[in-house]
Each structure stands twice: as C-alpha cells, then as structure tokens.
C-alpha cells in the first residue's frame, strides 16, 4: 500500500508509540489527525510535527476514547477535514490495575468503539471506500501476565473482536483489512509506574529492564503490516525474542485471511 496521500485518524497520538506511528506515516506522505485526552501534550506535539511536515498534513483534536460522543466527533472531524479516512489506528491505552474498570473503558471499549465507527465509515457495501483498521494491542493480549490480569483481559478483548471481523465471510465485500501489533514492554512513559499500579512492581521493573523494546521497533512492525496489502487479521508480536527482531504470526486461517507466515524466516518461540 502506497501511503502517500492516505488519510489517517489515530488515537492517543500526543506521545509514545502513537506519536512514533504518526511521524512514520507523515514521513511517507500520509495526512494524520490524532486525538488525545491530554490537550497540553497534544497541542505541543501538533506544533512540533507541523513544523517538521506541514500545517495541512497533521492536526490534533482533544478527545477521550472512553467517551463515545467525543470519539465519534473526533473521527467525524477527520472525515470533514480530509473527505474520508483510509486508515484508522486505535492506539490509546492505559495500564493501572487500581482503576481497572476505567482501564477496560479505554483499552477495550474505546478500541472496539473506534473499530465500529471506522468500519461503518469504510465499508464498501455501505457506500464507503474500504480501508485499514490497525490496533496497538500488547503481547499481553496473546497470553497471560500475573502482573496485570485486567490489563491483559482488556487486550484479549480487542484481539477477539478484531479477528472475528477479519475472518468474516463478508470481509471482501467490506473491503476493510485488519491488523494488530502486539509489543512486549516498550520504552515509553507507560513504564513509569507507581506502587500498586501493577502487582509486584519491583520484580517487574527488573524484568522489563532486560526485555523492553524501543518505540522504533514497534513503528517498524506497524509500517510493515499497514503497507502489506495481503495482510488481514495479522497479530504481529514485537519482542526481543529471536535476538531482538520481531516475528509475525497469524492466528486466523479462514478464507480471505492471510496465511500464517514468519517474518525473516525466524521460528516463533516454541516452534522449530
Ligand atoms: N509501553 C508499553 O510497554 C506497551 C504499550 N502498549 C500499548 O501501546 C499503546 C500506547 O502506549 P504507550 O505509547 O506506551 O503509552 P503512553 O502513555 O506513552 O501514551 C499513551 C497516549 O494515550 C493517551 N491516552 C490515554 N488515555 C486516553 C484516552 N482515554 N483517550 C485518548 N487518549 C488517551 C495518553 O494521553 C498518551 O498520550 C497503549 O494501548 C498500550 O497499552 C502495548 C505494549 C507495551
Ligand atoms: C507479556 C506481557 C507484555 C505486556 C506489555 C504491555 O502491554 C505493557 C507493559 C508494561 C510494563 C512492563 C511489564 C511487563 C513486561 C515485561 C516483560 C515481559 C517479558 C516476556 C518475555 O519476553 O518473556
């Protein structure tokens, strides 16, 4: 997929992985509108990116993805500005076991609602132009973690939702392809946690120090997936397994869903 001129809406883009993805898309000639709950950082990022690219190509709008009206209004602002949205990216997320219901509202409900809003807009069988819906999930969504059970569950919910749409027999009529990047811990502000935000924090911090990846690793994986026209329903793990490169696995095998494949010919851990 040629990203030049593509119209993108992304959630949680003020900093971290979301900002990294926006910058990579802008560098390929895409136009990006991003929302965030934090207006200060959002505005600052908007200014910096507008200086680097152009004021027409990137803009910020304040929205809380857990609020259905705010999320819908922000997405519609992107449609009004660009004429349509070709690529929708659910990235906003939080990690705090102390407010687990709020975490579900942001990570699971906010993401699923984002998918639904974008799908309605993009579906060819409903007059749309087709498109791509990408999700920044987590390696926690592929397995389990005693450090943060509710966070893990919120990410599993997204994968279940996304793969169910990706394997729909009507997916070709929808003309929308789906993908998830699933990183291990990433070197962002999210790792600066307080006691009780997750269980066993000090043990986790020791573990994270040797396992974390960089934003650029996640962006690299995202860019491969978003540009691959043959990819639908991919869950791309981003981790330091296999000497620091990432591998890609696809868990859905039905008609019209890309076949399983391994990137860089590396086996997925546990497979030979
Ligand atoms: N940092 C990590 O170790 C990992 C992060 N992830 C996921 O990546 C995504 C991005 O996380 P990071 O960049 O690391 O975090 P971050 O905390 O650096 O950035 C998240 C951004 O989302 C915004 N945000 C939070 N709640 C929001 C809401 N309700 N509405 C709109 N915007 C909101 C924040 O203001 C912030 O700008 C999240 O979904 C996270 O779960 C996945 C795997 C590992
Ligand atoms: C395996 C769960 C990864 C979850 C990543 C995530 O979404 C948020 C991470 C936040 C803090 C870091 C916590 C734990 C991850 C640390 C190491 C996991 C190592 C797994 C492995 O590669 O064996």
Structure notes:
The protein is α/β, with parallel strands linked by helices and 272 residues long. Helix content is 40%, strand content 15%. It has one domain (7-267): Rossmann fold (3-Layer(aba) Sandwich), CATH 3.40.50.720. It contains eight helices and eight strands, in the order βαβαβαβαβααβααββ. It has an eight-stranded mixed sheet with strand order 3-2-1-4-5-6-7-8, with helices on both faces. The radius of gyration is 18 Å and the shape is globular. The relative contact order is 0.12.
Element layout with pairings:
Elements: E1 7-11, H1 16-27, E2 31-36, H2 39-52, E3 58-62, H3 68-82, E4 87-90, H4 100-122, E5 131-136, H5 149-166, H6 171-174, E6 176-183, H7 201-211, H8 215-227, E7 234-238, E8 248-250
Parallel strand pairs: 1-2, 1-4, 2-3, 4-5, 5-6, 6-7
Antiparallel strand pairs: 7-8
The ligand CCCCCC(=O)/C=C/C=C\C/C=C\C/C=C\CCCC(=O)O binds next to helix 7.
Tag the structure with descriptive keywords.
15-hydroxyicosatetraenoate dehydrogenase activity, Rossmann fold, binds 1,4-dihydronicotinamide adenine dinucleotide, binds the ligand CCCCCC(=O)/C=C/C=C\C/C=C\C/C=C\CCCC(=O)O, globular, disordered C terminus
